[in-house]
């Protein structure tokens, strides 16, 4: 069985590309067939690579994301992906508002997939430093492990 997951944050240059990379890394050693992507609700960074600090955090964890390019969520995404996972509550609200009628995708918050963290936001590291990006990597990696386990069980 194949699965598809889209991670969404505001600009698609920090949190969502890190979440995409973390789930790709988690699934690389499994037999899951998963399409994984990321996007933003905003269009400010369309076509740009992830923030250099996000790239550095990923590289410190053995993953190259410099080839990723930011894109904005489209109406088609709600039909093309099984799961659309927001990195914070505001983006979840925005996704809910833009969701087309009869869309197939299940919307959720990233931390809804982690026991004891339901309803929490992944803090936006954009205005922070290296440590904030490392914290984001740790959080999305924890969630990616739980998401992989759930996909394997389904």
In short:
The protein is an alpha/beta fold and 154 residues long. It has helices at 15-28, 52-60, 77-80, 89-98, 130-153; strands spanning 2-9, 33-40, 83-86, 106-109. The model has no long low-confidence stretch (mean pLDDT 96).
Helix-strand category: alpha/beta
Total strands: the figure is 4
Low-confidence stretches: none
The residue fraction in helices comes out at 25-40%
CATH superfamily grouping: Response regulator
CA(first)-CA(last) distance: 9 Å
Domain count: 1
Question: Can you give the mean pLDDT?
Answer: 96
Largest sheet data: 4 strands, parallel
Q: Write down the CATH topology.
A: Rossmann fold
Shape: globular
Strand percentage = 15-25%
How many helices does DSSP assign? 5
Order of helices and strands: EHEHHEHEH
CATH architecture, by name, is: 3-Layer(aba) Sandwich
Text of the CATH class: Alpha Beta
Radius of gyration: 14 Å
**Which sequence of strands runs across the widest sheet?**
2-1-3-4
Structure description:
The protein is of the alpha/beta class. It has a single domain (2-79, 96-153), classed as Rossmann fold, CATH 3.40.50.2300. Helix content is 40%, strand content 16%. The protein contains five helices and four strands; from the N terminus they run βαβααβαβα. Strands 2-1-3-4 form a four-stranded parallel sheet. Helix 1 (15-28) runs parallel beside helix 2, helix 1 crosses helix 5 (130-153) and helix 2 packs across helix 5.
């Amino acid at each position: 069985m194949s699965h598809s997951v889209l991670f969404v944050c505001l600009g698609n240059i920090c949190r969502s590309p890190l979440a995409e990379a973390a789930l790709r890394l988690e699934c690389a050693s499994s037999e899951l067939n998963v399409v994984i992507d990321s996007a933003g609700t905003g269009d400010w960074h369309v076509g740009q690579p992830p923030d250099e600090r996000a790239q550095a955090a990923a590289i410190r964890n053995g993953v190259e994301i410099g080839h990723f390019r930011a894109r904005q969520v489209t109406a088609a995404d709600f039909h093309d992906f099984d799961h659309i996972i927001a990195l914070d509550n505001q983006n979840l609200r925005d996704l809910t508002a833009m969701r087309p009628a009869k869309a197939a995708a299940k919307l959720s918050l990233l931390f809804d997939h982690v026991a004891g963290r339901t309803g929490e936001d992944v803090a936006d590291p954009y205005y922070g430093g290296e440590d904030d990006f490392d914290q984001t990597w740790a959080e999305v990696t924890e969630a990616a492990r739980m998401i992989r386990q759930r996909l394997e069980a389904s």
